[in-house]
């Protein structure tokens, strides 16, 4: 096996100095400016699953290989989504708000509670996270509808009661009690959920977004939430991050906000290293690498 020298950059300036001699880069993202400096770059391993922040024309046109950490988030993000769903279904979110007010809101909270058994979960995006969410949801007795971008004729997926193509998104929205977004941000999924799509949801339904904030038109979402056209939203991601203190989302009792932490875990970097180490062995020995990013699809 070829000898590999591993150098850890100390700061942004140090990284700029290292880039001209770098063959392989491990990073959370790369900017067009830094890419221009990396004249010898052959492979970028991104320590994230969503690569939208590192997709730009110069990189896409180049011969540089891009890999990511697809797969390491399936358990933690699906758990986060289910946590939000349970908070809404069991009145936990409302109870916590009333606790801060020292209010024993028995009747109010009781009216908000319902069972998940028999409720329908619509999952938009049936990758690793979406499939794990479906599996966990079936354990709670939920019905699962999944939307898949590239759907094969007659395709069946365990734990998914019905799979629909993207053209039938309105059908998923109108039939779901909870809608979970588990798909990447691309040019085609930017503002996939807007005023029209929100109006197709039940007034009693909730939307959960742990993917990327720009998949939802945030202004349209706020309007729908303020006017109770949907029941609520669980949001871990936003169009602009950090979320501005002036955002009206903070004032809405039917919203759960978490600060883009759904994909975090104590052993995150260990899992990133495992994927990179496996790929490094494959790369140096000329074998097929895993988690290769399709530049045409953007993920």
- The CATH H-level homologous superfamily of the largest domain: NAD(P)-binding Rossmann-like Domain
Q: Give the overall shape.
A: globular
Query: Gyration radius, to the nearest Å?
Result: 21 Å
From the 3D coordinates, which CATH architecture of the largest domain would you assign?
3-Layer(aba) Sandwich
So how many helices?
Answer: 11
| β-strand number | 10
| Tally of individual domains | 2
CATH class of the largest domain, please? Alpha Beta
CATH topology of the largest domain: Rossmann fold
| Amount of beta strand | 5-15%
Major sheet strand order: 6-5-4-7-8-9-10
User: Any low-confidence stretches, pLDDT <50, length ≥5?
Assistant: none
Mean pLDDT: 97
Decide which structural class fits the backbone.
alpha/beta
State the helicity in percent bands: 25-40%
Tell me the distance between the termini: 30 Å
Could you list some keywords that capture this structure?
299 residues; Rossmann fold; 2 domains; 3-stranded parallel sheet; 11 helices; globular
Summarize the structure.
With 299 residues, the protein is α/β, with parallel strands linked by helices. It is built from 11 helices and 10 strands. β8, α10 (218-226) and β9 (232-235) form a beta-alpha-beta unit.
